[in-house]
Amino acid sequence: NLSFSAFLQPFSPVAPGLFRPVTILSYVLDAGIGGMQPWIFHASNILLHAVASILVFLLTRKLLQQDIPALAASLLFAVHPVHTEAVTWVSGRSELLAAMFVLVGVLFHLQSVGARHALPLQLGSALAYFLALSSKEIAVSLPFVLALLPFIHSRISQKDRTNSILLLLFVFIALSIYLLLRVGALGSLTIPLAHTRTAGLPTLDRLLLMPPVIARYILLMVFPWGLRLEYDWSSFPFLITAGSILLMILLLGLGWWLFRRGERVAAFGIAWFFFFLLPVANIIPIGELIAERFLYLPSVGFCILVGALFSSTEPRNRGANGEVMEFVSRLRSSKTVLIIMGTILLVFSSLTIRRNLDWRDPEILWRKTLALSPEAPHARENLIVMLLARGDLKEAGSLLAEELPRFPEKPMLHFLAGQLFRRTREDERAKKHFELALELGKPGNVEFTDFQRASVLLELWRFAEALPLLEHAASENPFDPSLLNNLGVAQAQLGKFPEAILSFERAIALYEEQGSLSEEDQRNLAGARGNLEMLRGVQ
């Protein structure tokens, strides 16, 4: 049922520190329309991306008062390869919703300029900000963008600037309500440090990671090659850090130069890009150091910049830079714009299609990630899981033999090693690794959940210890069929046959609702059906 209790609870029990009730409600709505069929969730993401692309067109046209540059910016946003993760991955929904509501908030504000009844539009802008924040935390930077607009939009009068102050008051109220709800649901404002990718790093070391990461984001917008699901992270040589800082200074200097030359919309695009990168720059530690999906909202600024640079507006104050500005003017001739933008859109479209092919197969996705980022935190583990699921024990064993000596403290690797040796009938070796997994993955270890601890306990036939862990996990995540399947196993082994039957039936129903299943899920579904049939026979 569509329930607004989502505004009173965390986003996910396995992702502490996240509060995204609007995203939860969008998933609930999808499930109500199409059940757990994957296509409905993917269709919704595509629809949201299309809406966001249209909003980029409307915003750019509002700022430039020109259709062709606005269309170019919108199409660039629609086909940019770096958006593949946010759109193709169902979990990227939060990025799409946040961007859509941010764009609506800015458009409401611009629509209020010169309007006789501006108050409803300003209230709509504040409401959109609240919904954007409730979709994903990255939207927090919107007030900076709204505060900048009076200096960008030439039609904003002194009266409108006074109204802008009133709007910022409404926005502050919306932010305050969001923060109160967030603290009520999570008990804190930030993600617990132990759950962040930079946990354990001194503050200075973490801050020194930011310039190379931001530089990488800038390069991905211009040259979207080598896309991957996870990136290596550790430290960067001094020259890379220094060069990254220089790149950021040059880009910010370009924004200021454009603003002084009268190219205010182009400068606004650069400001937008940096404003919306700030929440994901790990100034306050977050779950990931770098992710392509984080670029979805900041990239709106990049697209506005491109549209503004190719607009037909004549540059002002040519002065000593007359030759440069003359070149820019010639570049902006409609024929040149069409040729350049057409080529860019064609290249980017082909890269996006190619990248989507990677996402059709999880094994290809993780193999490409591993090839580009050998130190990616989850790529090797996930690949081993897939190899075990399809019975490729040789390659799984080879990968484990490489990984375990490098990371002997990782409980998940010992869990996988235990599964491997159980499959090869080396029970003593399997038991040793399962016990190591339990020892290393003690309660509170953020890399080893209660569900995973319970799965190890099941392998060791310690059903009484596994049951409360599984019951607690199932209460927080009642739509995970593999969890319910394991819960049924524990219940059956402890003689709780009616409860086990209900767990297996629920697991089977959830698997069948999904339609398309991975090899591991197919094996789990077959196991759940076999367990259910056996229990009914016993009864």
- Cα-based radius of gyration, to the nearest Å: 26 Å
Order of helices and strands: HHHHHHHHHHHHHHHHHHHHHHHH
The helical percent reads 55-70%
In round numbers, the mean pLDDT is 86
The portion of residues forming beta strands comes to: under 5%
Say how many strands there are.
0
Largest sheet: none
| Poorly predicted regions | 313-320
**DSSP summary: helix tally:** 24
- What is the global morphology? globular
Topology:
Elements (H helix, E strand, L loop, with lengths): L20 H14 L3 H27 L2 H13 L4 H5 L4 H20 L6 H15 L8 H7 L9 H29 L16 H20 L15 H23 L3 H14 L21 H11 L12 H10 L2 H26 L2 H11 L6 H11 L3 H14 L4 H13 L3 H14 L9 H10 L3 H14 L4 H13 L3 H18 L4 H20 L1
Characteristic terms for this protein:
539 residues, mainly alpha, 24 helices, globular
Give a brief rundown of this model.
69% of the residues lie in helices and 0% in strands.
Task: Describe the protein in words.
The structure is a single chain. This protein has 539 residues and is mainly α. It has 24 helices and no strands. The chain has helices at 21-34, 38-64, 67-79, 84-88, 93-112, 119-133, 142-148, 158-186, 203-222, 238-260, 264-277, 299-309, 322-331, 334-359, 362-372, 379-389, 393-406, 411-423, 427-440, 450-459, 463-476, 481-493, 497-514, 519-538. Helix 3 runs parallel beside helix 14 (334-359) and helix 16 (379-389) crosses helix 24 (519-538). The longest helix is centred in the first third of the chain and has 29 residues, at 158-186. 41% of the residues are buried. The model is unreliable at 313-320 (pLDDT under 50).
